[in-house]
Design brief:
single chain, mainly alpha, 0% strand, globular
Length: 170
């Protein structure tokens, strides 16, 4: 096995351990996180926004883990996953510090687009690049990431509906 192959193999294992560990650590410190947010200019952040942020961070971690093997395949694939990880981390920050209608819409649209692209690469094949037309196998890590992204969509939809009903997150 090449050095790049060994590194990506170990990165996947590390990710499957680190991802749940990070989520467990976030859950364990939930009351401290809520208390810290409450002290920030008396801003009330809905729990669903915090959950959406945590799920987005989880998806970003998964995408960051798969950068090296995709980068070894092609610069474009690696850059795509790097940009996706950064976007999901940035969105997680925005939903907590500047929650608004456009953030919810971006969370829904962006995560649905990524899930649909994932489904397309598993059924019709990769649309662009050096591996165009090849179907990706379905794995535990990518399925977990898709579920995290669908969780973000569900939280955003719930928050958008709540916003309309109660007038929060203006």
């Amino acid at each position: 096995m090449s050095a790049a192959g060994a590194a990506s193999h170990h990165a996947v294992h590390l990710g499957t351990l680190a991802g749940p560990a990070l989520l467990l650590a976030f859950w364990a410190s939930w009351s401290e996180v809520r208390a810290w947010i409450a002290r920030c200019d008396d801003v009330q952040v809905p729990t669903a926004a915090l959950v959406a942020a945590a799920l987005s961070i989880g998806a970003a971690v998964v995408h960051a883990i798969v950068i090296p093997p995709h980068l070894a395949e092609s610069f474009e694939y690696g850059a795509f996953f790097a940009a996706l990880a950064v976007a999901q981390l940035g969105w997680a920050v925005l939903i907590v510090v500047r929650p608004g209608s456009w953030i919810l819409a971006a969370g829904i649209a962006g995560n649905l687009a990524v899930v649909l692209l994932w489904a397309a690469t598993r059924t019709a094949g990769i649309p662009l690049g050096v591996a165009a037309g090849q179907r990706e196998p379905i794995g535990v890590l990518d399925t977990t990431c898709g579920l995290l992204e669908l969780g973000v969509v569900a939280c955003c939809a719930w928050l958008a509906r709540r916003r309309e009903a109660v007038g929060v997150l203006a």
